[in-house]
Amino acid sequence: MSRGRFITIEGGEGTGKSTHAKLLCDALRAQGLAVVCTREPGGSPGAEEIRRLLVSGEPDRWDAMTEALLFCAARRDHLVKTVQPALARGEWVVSDRFADSTAAYQGFAQGLGQDVVERLHEMVAGGCVPDLTVILDVPADIGLARAGGRGERGGDRYESMDKSFHEKLREGFLAIARREPGRCVVVDTRPEPDAVQAAVLAAVRERLGPLVRGG
């Protein structure tokens, strides 16, 4: 049995990650693929417990290192219990956030530094790297307005951080995309959702070739 494919959807608050991750899962399933649609932090029982610690409370509840370690603990459980078994079964995994979020949030926006984040990721995930990462991008003020207007689940703690944090966060994701163009594709989410989803599907078809049909 061949290994499945691992796709991650990344971006700041209000970029529509959860929506577009679900739409991508639906599109892949419609083509007859076995798909696991998951998220971080979360995606396994233990990781969901840690998620509750991370997404609620005051903005300064944790310092950057503590927060990164909590994310990494959740990621380890998610990988061991959900992602790696699915890939070994030949299934596709689509995750709403993965390691790039730790790099952008704690590494860039909270100033922990990329070297620290990369060392933590190596210990937690080893060689587990997504086949494709779609980074959904929107200016920080638009993203925050969207997130606040929709009341996105689990986003309150991060949404309450100041605009400068979110601007650093956006630049962090764009820096990751510039550094790893072979893995990452940036999709502008300012157009209508149908156009954004078409761009996401186009990126998947382009990067994963004959595995995904057009339509």
Provide a descriptive summary of the structure in words:
- Helix content is 56%, strand content 13%.
- The chain is α/β, with parallel strands linked by helices.
- The protein has a 5-stranded parallel sheet with strand order 2-3-1-4-5, sandwiched between helices.
- The protein is globular and about 45 Å long.
- The two termini are 27 Å apart.
Summarize the main sheet: 5 strands, parallel
Mean pLDDT: 92
How are helices and strands ordered from N to C?
A: EHEHHEHHEHHHEH
Structural class: alpha/beta
List the strand order in the largest sheet.
2-3-1-4-5
DSSP summary, beta strand count:
5
Question: Oligomerization state of this entry?
Answer: single chain
Low-confidence stretches: 151-155
Question: What's the end-to-end separation, in Å?
Answer: 27 Å
Q: Report the total helices.
A: 9
Strand content: 5-15%
The percentage helix is: 55-70%
Q: Over all CA atoms, what is the radius of gyration?
A: 16 Å
